[in-house]
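Quick one: sequence plus guanosine-5'-triphosphate SMILES, need structure tokens.
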Amino acid sequence: MASEHVEAADDISALALKILVAGGFGVGKTTLVGSVSEIRPLRTEELLSEAGQLVDDTDGVDRKVTTTVAMDFGRITIRSGLALYLFGTPGQDRFWFIWDELSQGALGAVVLADTRRLEDCFPAVDYFEHRRIPFVVAVNCFPGARPYGAQDVSRALDLDQGTPVVLCDARDRDSGKEVLIRLVEYAGRMHTARLLDSVS
Ligand SMILES: Nc1nc2c(ncn2[C@@H]2O[C@H](COP(=O)(O)OP(=O)(O)OP(=O)(O)O)[C@@H](O)[C@H]2O)c(=O)[nH]1
Ligand SMILES: [Mg+2]
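Reply:
Sure thing.
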């Protein structure tokens, strides 16, 4: 007899939403997708090479030896009937052209930030603001980084009022899941408001 337990992502009536995990170089995008994914995540890591030293901005991430060159992919079931497909973007400027492809049809995005290099997430914030893709900023609290409150980060990034800022640890599944739930709730509200605007 077929199992009565049907996983959300295997159920054809389940809703699957596309979410991007973006942000600057080495901020923890691959780590976040890997920690929350219930399937073995797809990764496209390559060694940081000497040739790349001339073009890659690795300041502040000295101990990093690999980088994402195409994307990360993972999946998480938020609740029965609702699965998220997670697409982690590459962090380095030379892979920007991949972002347009990845962002097609996305419900929203997580912009990961590291307060020691906050300016690295400006391009991602700009990118989603210009395309009107709802996003939340998730501050990945690296040990040793000065703790800032969500309000401080929101002000420093000059975010539109209402854009959520969440503190998280990208290595922790529950923490990552909380970020994704905040995003789905926020993006849902934003899309509904726009829909109502367009018909009124
Ligand atoms: N201490 C600490 N280390 C972390 C955290 N998140 C990620 N790391 C480490 O930081 C490094 C960068 O993580 P990645 O997940 O590869 O970063 P990324 O944003 O995918 O990097 P690119 O794809 O190269 O842009 C790795 O060595 C992780 O182990 C964190 O929350 N705390
Ligand atoms: Mg990566």
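Residues 140 and 193 are 29 Å apart (CA to CA). The longest helix spans residues 173-199.
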